[in-house]
């Protein structure tokens, strides 16, 4: 092969667009099994809207404060601590505990859960627990479970 032809091929290879390089036959195709799941943040922040009679209202989580105003338990913005962050399969959950629970707030611990199905659809749920003991026991009686819609 002539040196000028080699130089031309090298220049074409170096200047090839990334999409063309991705389709190169010597590069193995990336399958869904080899794609790593997205990394979830340590603390999930955002504004969520509850649906249903007991759950209507907003859950707001900022870096320093959490508020959850439902029909029967208004919890104004208060400081919180992250009690737990757990990932199981396609679900990630964060548990927040109010540092000082406001008097009007029935729930001491709020758990936010994110579920991602195989089609990539995301579901959000919040659960309020009356105590840390009820949260640890995952009590069905002493809790409120609400489907949410993420607004931001």
What are the SSEs and their pairings?
Blueprint: H1 3-15, H2 18-22, E1 46-50, E2 57-61, E3 65-69, E4 74-88, E5 91-98, E6 109-116, E7 122-129, H3 132-136, E8 143-150
Antiparallel strand pairs: 1-2, 1-8, 2-3, 3-4, 4-5, 5-6, 6-7, 7-8
What kind of sheet is the major sheet?
8 strands, antiparallel, barrel
Secondary structure category: alpha+beta
Oligomer: single chain
- Strand content is 35-45%
Report the radius of gyration as a whole number of Å.
24 Å
**Poorly predicted spans:** 27-36
Summarize this, please?
It contains 3 helices and 8 strands. The protein is of the alpha+beta class and 152 residues long. It has an 8-stranded antiparallel barrel.
Overview of the molecule:
There is one protein chain. The protein has three helices and eight strands, in the order H-H-E-E-E-E-E-E-E-H-E. It has helices at 3-15, 18-22, 132-136, and strands at 46-50, 57-61, 65-69, 74-88, 91-98, 109-116, 122-129, 143-150. Strand 4 (74-88) and strand 5 form a beta hairpin. The N and C termini lie far apart (59 Å). Strands 1-2-3-4-5-6-7-8 form an eight-stranded antiparallel beta barrel. It is globular. The longest helix is centred in the first third of the chain and has 13 residues, at 3-15. The relative contact order is 0.16. With 152 residues, the chain is an alpha+beta fold.
């Amino acid at each position: 092969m002539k040196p000028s032809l080699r130089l031309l091929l090298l220049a074409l290879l170096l200047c090839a667009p990334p999409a063309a390089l991705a389709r190169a036959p010597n590069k193995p195709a990336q399958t869904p099994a080899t794609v790593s799941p997205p990394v979830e943040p340590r603390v999930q922040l955002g504004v969520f809207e509850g649906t249903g009679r007991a759950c209507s209202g907003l859950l707001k989580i900022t870096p320093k404060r959490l508020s959850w105003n439902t029909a029967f338990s208004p919890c104004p913005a208060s400081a919180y601590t992250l009690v737990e962050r757990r990932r199981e399969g396609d679900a990630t959950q964060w548990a927040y505990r109010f540092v000082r629970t406001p008097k009007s707030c029935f729930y001491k611990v709020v758990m936010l859960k994110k579920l991602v199905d195989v089609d990539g659809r995301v579901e959000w749920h919040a659960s309020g627990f009356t105590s840390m003991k009820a949260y640890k026991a995952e009590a069905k009686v002493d809790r409120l479970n609400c489907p949410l819609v993420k607004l931001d």
